[in-house]
Write a structure and sequence with these properties.
two-stranded antiparallel ribbon; 1% strand
């Protein structure tokens, strides 16, 4: 049965066929799940009498589920995956689900251009608030729910990825936890990963439900509360309003601020804090994360106040912007592109931070900056004391050399992607479009890599990415996935070592 799908050809070993079949099985199962999860969107469309979109969403679900089932049941092969296969699956999953996730937009006609539909889908699954939709309120309820669900599913997926795949690359939080606390792998909450993932999912669902309840108690309709509860819990940023959170009351904005801050905390730390609330303050990474948010909020508030804004609104807008940027949630209450220039520079700088490892946020992550600072300080001291044995420490414990090396490599690749992406985006817009300025290109790339959404210039909170050329959208889509998967799993896809037997 499988030989017809993976034929025996010269140089195509049995081992490689086995790897391909296991990848087909896993990716097929994921695609089937995506198809099944389109059904609530179809049901919502039917509930609101949007019959055209309901039928289109059902068709998208059917096509997705059937194609996924072919890969899962016919071409696939069950079996324990090797480390290489796990890396390949992690890198390929987002590319595959983005293709099928675009079908609801295309079949309903909500977004007719394939490049735009793919861009919107990638922005959803990577929990990036970038959009090509000028007025989300014009979309049907079914399409809007699918739009929100892509971000919620992406937020759930990165939590599992952070405890399952990234630690093996030195990119997740397990190494950090080893440096902070005794024990072999303290960030694994239970001995079995399946149980760990289950408990993290339950926390994620619980936080989502709480967010929906508090939002519904304000000025949002039940549907708006569900929509924004899903996108806020995921650190996503999609909204039903062109003005994002600026269209809602002060109460709603404060609720979103609190939920955004909570989603920026490691879900493993949340789990520990259920039994021991003091775990928050004992975490070096949490204290650093809270300090970054506080300092950023003070600076933004001071900048807005110096520009003549009122005190109450200034405090709320400043805190909102700082939390949204650090947690890489694309919500806004004001247009950053209209702020004074030095505040705009701060906005771009904050796009690189990110919150804690094991959270739903994107960016470089707080613990990596902490490790970089400690290791750089040790290198400086080593110049003065060349014979001294100096080990960088984080959280009162010595950092393993492998962790320091992986963090340095990550930061190097991240910055290389930022520089190369800025150049390629500016080049693509110059060749295929009307061109763009440096501020717009650089901020758009920083926003895509950090999974934030709005940028500066023409791509600021008041605009959309609809005017970006198709090659520019493909590039930004790739950068969104690169940033969401924390660089390494995507780069490994382009190495021969991953695919050789």
């Amino acid at each position: 049965m499988t030989s017809s799908v993976f034929p025996r050809i010269p140089g195509y070993s049995r081992r490689r066929r086995g790897m391909a079949r296991r990848l087909a099985s896993l990716l097929g199962a994921v695609v089937v799940s995506v198809g099944v999860l389109m059904l609530p969107a179809a049901a919502t469309a039917a509930l609101y009498g949007e019959w055209h979109d309901a039928r289109a969403l059902l068709a998208a679900a059917a096509v997705t589920a059937v194609v996924g089932a072919v890969g899962w049941r016919l071409a696939g092969e069950r079996g324990e995956m090797t480390t290489k296969e796990a890396f390949a699956a992690a890198g390929l999953t987002y590319f595959v689900i983005a293709l099928f996730g675009a079908l609801p937009y295309l079949l309903t006609g909500a977004i007719s251009d394939p490049s735009d539909a793919l861009f919107e889908t990638v922005a959803g699954f990577t929990t990036t608030g970038s959009t090509v939709v000028g007025d989300p309120g014009a979309l049907s309820h079914g399409v809007l729910l699918w739009r929100a669900m892509t971000q919620w599913l992406g937020g759930m997926g990165i939590i599992v990825l952070s405890v399952a795949i990234l630690p093996w690359l030195g990119a997740g939080g397990v190494q950090l936890a080893r440096a902070e606390a005794p024990g072999p792998e303290p960030s694994r909450l239970t001995p079995r990963f399946r149980e760990t993932a289950k408990r993290l999912w339950l926390l994620y669902v619980a936080l989502t439900v709480v967010a929906i309840a508090f939002l519904a108690a304000g000025d949002m309709s039940p549907f708006e509360a569900v929509f924004h509860g899903l996108t806020t819990a995921a650190s996503g940023g999609f909204s039903t309003e062109p003005g994002s959170m600026g269209a809602f009351s002060a109460y709603t904005q404060w609720v979103v601020i609190v939920v955004m801050f909570l989603t920026g905390i490691s879900f493993a730390l949340h789990f520990r804090a259920l039994r021991d609330p003091g775990a928050y303050l004992r975490s070096t990474e949490f204290r650093t994360y809270a300090a970054i948010v506080l300092v950023g909020a003070v600076i933004v508030v001071a900048g807005l106040w110096s520009a003549g804004a009122g005190v109450a609104g200034t405090v709320r807008d400043g805190v909102f912007a700082a939390v949204a940027l650090v947690t890489t949630t694309g919500f806004v209450t004001q247009d950053w592109a209209r702020w004074v220039e030095w505040l705009q520079i701060l906005v771009v700088g904050m796009m690189f931070f990110g919150a804690m490892a094991g959270s739903t946020s994107g960016g470089v992550k707080t613990f990596r900056f902490g490790i970089l600072l400690r290791s750089s300080g040790a290198d400086l001291r080593r110049l003065l004391y060349p014979d001294a044995v100096l080990s960088p420490r984080y959280g009162g414990r010595a950092l393993p050399p492998g962790l320091v090396d992986s963090v340095q490599s990550f930061f190097l690749f991240y910055m290389m992607a930022f520089v190369a992406g800025t150049f390629l985006l500016a080049l693509a817009e110059a060749v295929f479009g009307a061109g763009t300025d440096l501020v717009t290109s650089a901020s758009a790339v920083a926003s895509a890599l950090g999974n934030i959404g709005p940028a500066l210039g023409d791509l600021g909170p008041a605009g959309t990415y609809a005017a970006v050329t198709a090659p520019g959208k493909w590039l930004l889509s790739f950068l969104m996935i690169l940033g969401r998967l924390e660089v390494f799993p995507v780069l490994l896809l382009f190495t021969r070592h991953l695919w050789r037997r």
